[in-house]
């Protein structure tokens, strides 16, 4: 096994999903702000 | 040796299994640095387009 054991992989993935969802949320907000400022399509 | 049959993953419920292969203790920071590089490249492209240079007055 080159990675984590299953139980630790599941535990890490829970935090990874939270952080990634937050990142996508902030990026989506930024895109909406740019869209309101100057639509690019 | 006979071809080993491996079950196809069902996603997203099996997504966590990636960490049983890629150890985050080794690969999390490189992954985050690549995300940063992509973000810097995208921002550089946007700043170089006159219409969308949000820093130009």
From TrEMBL, chain A:
A bacteriochlorophyll binds at residues 13, 31. The chain crosses the membrane at residues 20-37. Gene3D superfamilies: 1.20.5.250. One of its GO terms (molecular function) is bacteriochlorophyll binding. Keywords: Antenna complex, Bacteriochlorophyll, Cell membrane, Chlorophyll, Chromophore, Light-harvesting polypeptide, Magnesium, Membrane, Metal-binding, Transmembrane, Transmembrane helix. It is found in: Cell inner membrane. It is a single-pass type II membrane protein. GO terms for biological process: photosynthesis, light reaction. The keyword Transmembrane helix applies. The keyword Transmembrane helix applies. InterPro entries: Antenna_a/b (IPR000066), Antenna_beta_CS (IPR023623), Antenna_beta_dom_sf (IPR023624), LHB-1/5 (IPR002362), Light-harvesting_complex (IPR035889). Pfam families: LHC. One of its GO terms (cellular component) is plasma membrane. Antenna complexes are light-harvesting systems, which transfer the excitation energy to the reaction centers. This is Light-harvesting protein. It comes from Halochromatium glycolicum.
TrEMBL record, chain B:
One of its GO terms (molecular function) is bacteriochlorophyll binding. It holds the Pfam family LHC. One of its GO terms (biological process) is photosynthesis, light reaction. Residues 15-48 form the Antenna complex alpha/beta subunit domain. This is Light-harvesting protein. The chain crosses the membrane at residues 21-42. It comes from Halochromatium glycolicum. The lineage of its organism: Bacteria, Pseudomonadati, Pseudomonadota, Gammaproteobacteria, Chromatiales. Antenna complexes are light-harvesting systems, which transfer the excitation energy to the reaction centers. It is found in: Cell membrane. Keywords: Antenna complex, Bacteriochlorophyll, Cell membrane, Chlorophyll, Chromophore, Light-harvesting polypeptide, Magnesium, Membrane, Metal-binding, Transmembrane, Transmembrane helix.
């Amino acid at each position: 096994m080159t990675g984590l054991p299953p139980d630790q992989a599941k535990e890490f993935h829970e935090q990874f999903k939270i952080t990634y969802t937050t990142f996508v949320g902030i990026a989506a907000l930024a895109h909406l702000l740019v869209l309101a400022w100057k639509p690019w399509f | 040796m006979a071809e080993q049959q491996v079950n196809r993953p069902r996603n997203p419920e099996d997504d966590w299994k990636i960490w049983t292969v890629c150890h985050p203790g080794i690969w999390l920071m490189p992954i985050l640095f690549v995300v940063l590089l992509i973000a810097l490249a995208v921002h550089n492209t946007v700043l170089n387009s006159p219409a969308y240079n949000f820093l130009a007055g």
